[in-house]
Amino acid sequence: MLGHYLTVALRTLTRHKLHTAVSLAVLALGLTCFVAVYLFVSYLRGYDRQFANADRMFVVFQGLHSPKYGLEWPSYPASSVLLAPQLALDVPSLEAVARYRPMGRTFVNVDGEQRPRRAAYAEPQFLRIFNFKVVAGDLRDALSGSNAIVTEDTAESLFGTRDVVGKTVSITESNTADITIAAVIADLPAASHLNPRGLWTQGFDILLPWDMAEKLSPLPAGAGWYNTMVYTYGLLPKDGSLSLAAVDRRLEKLIADHIPKQGITVTLDARPVSSIATGLMQSQFQGFQGTAWSVDIFTALEMLGAAILVIACVNFVNL
What we know:
It is a single chain. The chain is an alpha+beta fold. The chain has nine helices and twelve strands. The chain has helices at about 1-15, 15-45, 85-90, 125-130, 150-160, 215, 245-260, 275-285, 295-315, and strands at about 55-65, 70-75, 80, 95-110, 115-120, 135, 145-150, 170, 175-185, 205-210, 230-235, 265-270. A six-stranded mixed beta barrel has the order 4-5-10-7-9-8. A hairpin with a 3-residue loop joins strand 8 (about 170) and strand 9. The longest helix has 29 residues, at about 15-45. About 30% of the residues are buried.
């Protein structure tokens, strides 16, 4: 019986050569779309899992909602500059809390030549949360005073060597300051939001101490709870005594106790650092004014890829 069905199928395929060729092409295209969507979504969901503390690292997403002012800012991995100090006080069991502020392109003066590079500012505990691989120098005091950290690729492109510890260069943003390179770290993989050339990057070529922002690019006066200008990271205790759900409950209390009620509702929630890339894409899909309906863009993409594959299979079977 099976042989009979195969014989009939082969006769049908050879009788309708053009239709068969088109159906095979559609089937191949459907399979390609499905695999491409699956790989893309898996790639983004796999961001930042290379760090040793990946299962304990989190970032705080902040959202703003105000019917009074017509404001609907979707939950985004950036938060208020005031959050980190208050979080450290309210949740002392966290191993580390740190602020990180990506600045985009800045100019580095090397031998009288201005070269654009991506810069960012971070607090010292940032280095406790992210275990960067050191190529040269020492990270212990790398984010204090006028010290700085550069990536391996940046050292090679600026100086032609990784042996740059102790060298002094000028950095120019709103103002100019001299910095001394204290450490060189290995380049991060492309699947990291801290890689300066990755998708939806918030990365850096040069990492500067948090206090240096006062010299180079001061925060706007009056930056408060409704200005989401920095990333707030935390590190859960190694003994498992605190979960993300528990941090979320503390964040709810923090909102009630410390954020003034001015007609704007603030939401704060702690999510794994690995969710930053997907969170950025989701926020950009919704739009910064929000939407009347909520759709998980990654589930929608997977469903679309599956639907294309099913249609292609049905079309082929109909031969």
